[in-house]
Write a structure and sequence with these properties.
This protein is 78% helix and 0% strand. By secondary structure, it is mostly helical. The radius of gyration is 22 Å and the shape is globular. It comes from Scardovia inopinata F0304.
């Protein structure tokens, strides 16, 4: 009966959100309202039942039909969207010579900000005096956390960093389209880039056939994006269910024990957002306008903990709200999903490595260690999975390359969902920022549309 009542209340809240949607409440406002209501509802449930209650577990299981269903629908379109977006970026290139400039600027920004994020992560550990892991005294990793680490280690077993990089290359593209490997996403990205380059060469010799191919990709792009629109209309309801689960099941006790790490991680994320803002100012872009338009994607990334799930919204915001050309928007968003994620592949692995290093006698203040860590983190940022758990995989790559033990990581996994929310928002922001800066440098952004307050995703949904 109690489970039924909880689910009934959740259904009533969802019905109210649907009513507001039909009353044409703005998309951004509806997303924010879903976030706030979900937090209040989830915290209330945890206070009433506790995180280990069977009643709460059963109720959340039912509520998350909406949340997990929404994530599943988004993940369904990710691989097709990456393929048509990247290949479409090549078919829409006005001048082939722009490819090198677009690629160099995009990859340079993604990797450059990741290196900065790694440095910020190290600084955060030192400022909060986390190096040496004394704050974890008496804490132990749960069996679930250890199982998670073993699962990720199985994918990396026996592979050096160069071999791990080679493993990103596709050897069976159909298997990678099915997502059979941890590195399937970057394999599809690489395959799409190769198809795009092949298209440009065919275009020079056989323009008629190339035009036919381009029309086919355009047709696929329209269909996939229409499907994306349909799914994104469900965003407020998915966010309510996802944030309710997070607020109800993330233990207050675990957060209290590791509060200093959570604070240090969020401080690092805030510093990186500040650095992103400085980059916007240097590029003479209004940060207030930027964040207002990026807000829906950042909120969804925060609640869903999925950079991959945010990809469709990421692309639409860049193109339709910020005025970035579809070529650059598709290219930057897709590459940003698997290369140079500031949060999961930059800040977090550097923090964990800097915490662990002193436990095996390494001087974390050594310039040699700092430079080595930044370099390893930046290289390892290739191929990170854009879903929950991607940061653990990348961190294990970094720790393995530096010959550092992984036991402490198992303890930190207890509060990983809380930290992952901020990390994922930072990942997505870096991707959008990269698209905007790249487009502005190439003259591929409509700054009048960027400044237009009416040009927002909320009007489209």
């Amino acid at each position: 009966m109690q489970v039924f009542i909880i689910v009934l209340v959740a259904a009533a809240i969802l019905a109210a959100l649907i009513f507001l949607h039909h009353k044409h409440v703005g998309f951004t406002r509806l997303v924010f309202l879903s976030l706030v209501v979900g937090i209040i509802f989830g915290v209330t449930l945890q206070l009433l039942y506790g995180t280990k209650s069977e009643i709460l577990t059963d109720a959340i299981d039912w509520i998350n039909i909406v949340g997990n269903g929404y994530i599943s629908l988004l993940q369904m379109v990710i691989i097709p969207l990456i393929f048509v977006s990247l290949v479409g970026a090549f078919t829409k290139l006005k001048v082939a010579e722009n490819l090198r400039r677009m690629a160099a600027t995009t990859v340079g920004l993604l990797l450059g900000t990741t290196a900065i994020a790694a440095l910020v992560g190290i600084a955060s550990v030192l400022i909060f005096r986390l190096n040496g892991a004394k704050f974890l005294s008496g804490a132990a990793a749960s069996s679930t956390a250890l199982d998670s680490i073993k699962e990720h280690q199985a994918d990396l077993k026996g592979l050096t960093l160069p071999q791990q990089i080679v493993s990103f290359l596709p050897n069976n593209i159909f298997a990678d389209f099915a997502g059979s490997r941890a590195s399937s996403t970057i394999a599809v990205v690489i395959f799409s880039l190769l198809i795009g380059v092949a298209f440009l060469r065919v275009k020079q010799q056989f323009p008629q056939e190339a035009a036919t191919f381009a029309r086919g990709i355009e047709a696929l792009d329209r269909i996939v994006n229409r499907l994306v629109k349909m799914i994104l209309a469900l965003t407020p309801y998915g966010i309510f269910a996802l944030i309710t689960k997070a607020a109800a099941t993330d233990s207050f006790a675990d957060m209290a024990k590791l509060a200093v790490f959570i604070v240090a991680a969020y401080a690092g994320v805030l510093v990186m957002f500040l650095i992103h803002t400085i980059i916007l100012l240097i590029a003479r872009i209004n940060p207030v306008t930027y964040y207002k338009k990026a807000w829906p994607a950042l909120i969804f990334a925060f609640t869903s903990r999925s950079s991959a799930g945010t990809l469709p919204l990421n692309v639409r915001i860049q193109n339709e709200s910020m005025g970035i050309s579809s070529t650059v928007a598709n290219f930057a968003a897709s590459l940003g999903l698997t290369i140079g994620q500031n949060g999961c592949a930059g800040l977090y692995p550097a923090m964990v490595a800097a915490i662990i290093a002193p436990t095996v006698g390494i001087n974390v203040f050594s310039p040699q260690f700092i430079l080595s860590l930044i370099a390893v983190v930046t290289i390892s940022s290739f191929g990170v999975a854009g879903v929950g758990g991607g940061a653990t995989f990348t961190t294990l790559m970094v720790l393995g390359t530096l010959n550092l033990p992984v036991g402490i990581l198992g303890v930190l996994i207890a509060i990983d969902p809380i930290v992952d929310m901020a990390r994922t928002a930072l990942n997505v922001n870096d991707s959008i920022l990269t698209g905007l800066i790249t487009a502005k440098s190439m003259g591929e952004v409509d700054m009048h549309k960027f400044a237009d307050r009416a040009a927002v995703v909320s009007r489209e949904l």
